[in-house]
Design a protein that fits this description.
The complex is a heterodimer of chains A (about 140) and B (about 110). Chain A contains 3 helices and 5 strands, in the order βααββαββ. Chain A has about 140 residues and is of the alpha+beta class. Chain A has a single domain, classed as Heat Shock Protein 90, CATH 3.30.565.10. Chain A has a 5-stranded antiparallel sheet, covered by helices on one side. In chain A, β2 and β3 form a beta hairpin. In chain A, α2 runs antiparallel to α3. Chain A starts with a strand and ends with a strand. Chain B has a single domain, classed as 2-Layer Sandwich (Transcription Regulator spoIIAA), CATH 3.30.750. Chain B contains 4 helices and 5 strands, in the order ββαβαβαβα. Chain B has a 5-stranded mixed sheet with strand order 1-2-3-4-5. The chains are: A alpha+beta (about 140), B alpha/beta (about 110). Chains A and B meet through α1, α2 and α3 of A and α2 and α3 of B.
C-alpha cells in the first residue's frame, strides 16, 4: 500500500465503447484489489460522465477522442475525463429534488447527481479547448 | 442482460439478470411496455440478478412506476442487492418504490 497507481484509457465518442471500457474497469479493479462495490461505483461514474460527453458534447459528426485517467494515491481514488467538446460545466446543473413523489419526479437529470453523491469531490475546468472533469473519493 | 417473464396470481413477474446500463436499458423498457400494453398492470421486478444500474436504468424504473400509478396498478421490487439498494437510496428512489426482501412478500402485498 501507499504506492501510486495510474491507468489511462482513450475511447472514441461512440456509446458502443462503454461496455468494453466497463470490462476493462472490472479487470483493473481485480488487479488493484478494489472491492466490488468500489469497482461498481467507478464503472457507474464512468458511464454517467462518458454518456453525457458522447451524447451532448459534440455538434459535428467527427470522431473525437476522450481521455480517461484513473489513479489511486494514498487511498484517494481520482478519475479525470478530458474531452474537446463544447464547454459544459456539470457542477452548474441544477440538483434534482429527490423528495418529490413519483408522479412529480421529472424523468432524467440523475446522472450528474449520482456522480456527485458517489464521489466526495467533483471539479470542473476548461483548459484551452478542453473540458476537464475530475472526481475523487477516499477509499 | 436477460429478462424472464412469469405470471403468478394477478402479477407479472420480470426477473432481471445482469446490467441495466445505457446500452441495455431498452431491453427492460421494452419488456415493461409490453406488459402494460398486454393489460398486465401489476408488475413485480425481481432484481436478484441485477448487479448494476445507471441513471438510464433508473429512468426506466421511474417511467414504469408513473405508468403503474396512472393505470391504478402496482409496481413492486424485490430481492435487490445491497449495492443497488444504495443507488436507489442516494437517488431518492427508495421512497418511490415498495422494495420487498422476497418475491413471496411482494406477491402477498395487495396495496
Amino acid at each position: 500500500m501507499g504506492s501510486e497507481k495510474n491507468k489511462k484509457y482513450i475511447i472514441e465518442n461512440e456509446v458502443e465503447e462503454l461496455p468494453n471500457l466497463a470490462e476493462k474497469i472490472e479487470k483493473l479493479g481485480e488487479s488493484w484489489d478494489l472491492s466490488q462495490a468500489i469497482t461498481m461505483n467507478v464503472n457507474l461514474v464512468m458511464e454517467e460522465a462518458l454518456s453525457n460527453i458522447i451524447f451532448y458534447a459534440f455538434n459535428d459528426k467527427k470522431k473525437h477522442e476522450i481521455e480517461i485517467y484513473v489513479s489511486i494515491k494514498k487511498n484517494k481514488l481520482t478519475i479525470t475525463f478530458k474531452d474537446d467538446g463544447v464547454p459544459f460545466n456539470p457542477l452548474s446543473q441544477q440538483k434534482p429534488d429527490i423528495n418529490l413523489p413519483a408522479e412529480e419526479r421529472p424523468v432524467g437529470g440523475l446522472g450528474i447527481f449520482l456522480m456527485s453523491q458517489i464521489m466526495d469531490e467533483m471539479h470542473y475546468n476548461r483548459q484551452k479547448n478542453k473540458n476537464i472533469l475530475t472526481l475523487a473519493k477516499d477509499i | 442482460m436477460d429478462i424472464k417473464k412469469e405470471k403468478i396470481e394477478n402479477f407479472t413477474v420480470l426477473k432481471i439478470n445482469g446490467r441495466i446500463d445505457t446500452i441495455q436499458s431498452s431491453v427492460l423498457e421494452n419488456e415493461v411496455n409490453q406488459s402494460f400494453e398486454n393489460g398486465e398492470k401489476n408488475l413485480i421486478l425481481n432484481c436478484k440478478g441485477m448487479n448494476y444500474i445507471s441513471s438510464s436504468g433508473l429512468r426506466i424504473f421511474l417511467v414504469a412506476k408513473k405508468r403503474a400509478i396512472a393505470l391504478n396498478g402496482k409496481l413492486h421490487l424485490c430481492n435487490m442487492q445491497p449495492s443497488i439498494q444504495e443507488i436507489f437510496k442516494i437517488s431518492g428512489f427508495s421512497n418511490l418504490f415498495k422494495i420487498f426482501e422476497t418475491q413471496e412478500a411482494a406477491l402477498e402485498n395487495k396495496q
